[in-house]
Amino acid sequence: MKAAFVIFDRLTALDLIGLYDPITRLHSMGFRPDFGWEFCALEKSVTDDRGLGIQATCVGGSLEGFDVLLVPGGFGTADLVSDSAFLDWLRTADAVPLKASVCTGALLLGAAGWLRDRAATTHPNSYRELEAYCREVKQERVVDAGDVITGRGVTAAIDVGLHVVERIAGAEVRQAIARQMDYPGVRGKTS
């Protein structure tokens, strides 16, 4: 099983890391030794919205061979929703069975056409923009619409990451990873 973390200039780093940390623990904690990932972009290096450089491990290649597509948000999404080259590349993930976003990454999923007739969420400041792409904007922290999962604002990235973990490996693994992360609100806490 392999995940594609989509990266682009002016992404929000916490969106990316909030997804990355719990999901990659599937491998590092031994729950899914076969789990791998790539940082996918159209350029070798991108910079987040505050200057942090991130290196892509997969540049410009098709996204069709992945099992999970993970899309952060950030200020860069404002331009990318109308960037035909970026959207054409993103759409190579059409056959990817599970797609997830956090924050304004939902706008990219919407612009790619994957939110039609679905409920979705994004950062509250972008609800109006999301309305153009989906059936219903929900004000929930995580919206699971089957093969597409969307999360609200920046800190919802951890929630989405843990939700993806549960979809891949089950509730017990989600709880074990959340406990290891010392994440509050872990279901089934022990004292």
Largest sheet, strands/sense/barrel: 7 strands, mixed
The average pLDDT is: 95
Uncertain spans: none
Residues in β-strands, percent: 15-25%
Oligomer status: single chain
Approximate shape: globular
H/E element order: EHEEEEEHHEHEHEEEHH
Going by helix content, strand content and strand pairing, the class is alpha/beta
Number of strands: 11
Largest sheet, spatial ordering of strands: 5-2-1-6-7-11-10
Protein architecture, described:
It is a single chain. The radius of gyration is 15 Å and the shape is globular. The longest helix has 16 residues, at 13-28. The chain has seven helices and eleven strands. The mean pLDDT is 95. α1 (13-28) packs parallel to α6 and α6 (156-169) crosses α7 (171-180). It has a seven-stranded mixed β-sheet with strand order 5-2-1-6-7-11-10, with helices on both faces. A two-stranded antiparallel sheet has the order 3-4. It is α/β, with parallel strands linked by helices and 191 residues long.
List the main descriptive attributes of the protein structure presented here.
191 residues, alpha/beta, seven-stranded mixed β-sheet
